[in-house]
């Protein structure tokens, strides 16, 4: 889903529901010389009481088509009592360009209110695209559907056998497109598999899809699956189709289920037509997707650790230009960052004991360089009492250590990872905040450490375990 954020409501507003927007376009401008346009749609939202537009998300790019049906959805919080303005910009993506925001790649735009889409007949709105002088830019089609509370995730794998041959010099390059049915008899695209090249007997990779996307919680809702032969120019050849439902798919978990792929046009023309091949469901499994709130209500404790940069590049703490500088009137930049994050996380930690480390400093009395020294100077117990305790230990360290270098992250990441690895039952979740100013000196080791600690560990009942450690990016 393309949903990096939510529409900004007025203070105190409570969303009535979550709405999923599906986007399609028709008759777009063709900007490519030797092929068709490669469109993408960018959604912008306007904050409540503001004239500023902020990017909310993007669809995927679809190559070589003027009539795209985008799989990636936009999920928005819908507030009945507010006017929520949306802007859809359509661009042709040039792979040679670093940015899509180029005037020559602009295909048009449309302004709508979310309420317009929801209030339109069957939640379906068509709006002309404008913005390219002297050109008819085509139309954008928006479909709104209220999302159910279903949080199950499906993983399935399919293969096919004896599909129709569509390529003159080869076999076929098949892929599947999944659609869920709508009340008016239309269908909404919800998934595409990868293309398997030059075969009539493809085996597609397993894929995962939310049940909400597949049928929105209605287990008997028709799911239509089309089989296509991929063509480079975007004019994919239709091989055939079959229909099923989530309930039917779920019943086939313990056995292979075979579907006949039928092409209605061929069936009408050929009396002896049987099918255009078969598709077999190889595997189907369901897991529940637990939210952050589910884990917290289930007793998961958040453990907050902070690591602060004590390298010389920060400047002398006595100088106003230093990030460690604390004036008589306000905290230092590092202290402000620490409070901003820590005061939120501490509400989810029952003991309020936070390990705190420094890195990149020479320590007294021998001037040894350390990249994981406890701010409270207690190697056996680096925990400080509350955020105020962390701040107190941080200020004390500034008065005793010598800022030096280099800027190494890996030692402190591995230090905290060692603690996190001691509990793997999902009851503990560790967050490491690294506050720094400069370039990472041990980039390779840091990448390896983050990859290692971010892998799921242990076993959480009914679902995958959470990551044992989340490393917040440096501020």
Write the layout of secondary structure elements.
Blueprint lengths: L16 E10 L12 E8 L6 E6 L15 E5 L6 E8 L13 E8 H6 L4 E5 L10 E8 L5 E10 L12 E8 L5 E6 L14 E4 H5 L6 E8 L7 E9 H6 L5 E4 L3 H6 L8 E11 L3 H6 L3 E9 L23 H13 L7 E7 L1 E3 L4 E3 L2 E2 L8 E3 H15 L1 E2 L6 H11 L7 E8 L7 H12 L14 E4 L3
Parallel strand pairs: 17-18, 17-24, 24-25
Antiparallel strand pairs: 1-4, 1-8, 2-3, 2-5, 5-6, 7-8, 9-12, 9-16, 10-11, 10-13, 13-14, 15-16, 18-21, 18-22, 19-20, 19-23
Helix pairs in contact: 8-9
Q: Residue share in helices?
A: 10-25%
Cα radius of gyration in angstroms:
28 Å
CATH architecture of the largest domain: 3-Layer(aba) Sandwich
CATH topology of the largest domain: Rossmann fold
Contiguous helical run count: 9
GO molecular function, one term: metal ion binding
Family: Belongs to the copine family.
InterPro entries: C2_dom, C2_domain_sf, C2B_Copine, Copine, Copine_C, vWFA_dom_sf
Domain C2: 1-127, 136-259
What key attributes describe this structure?
475 residues, alpha+beta, Immunoglobulin-like, Rossmann fold, 6-stranded mixed β-sheet, 4-stranded antiparallel β-sheet, elongated, disordered N terminus, metal ion binding, calcium-dependent phospholipid binding
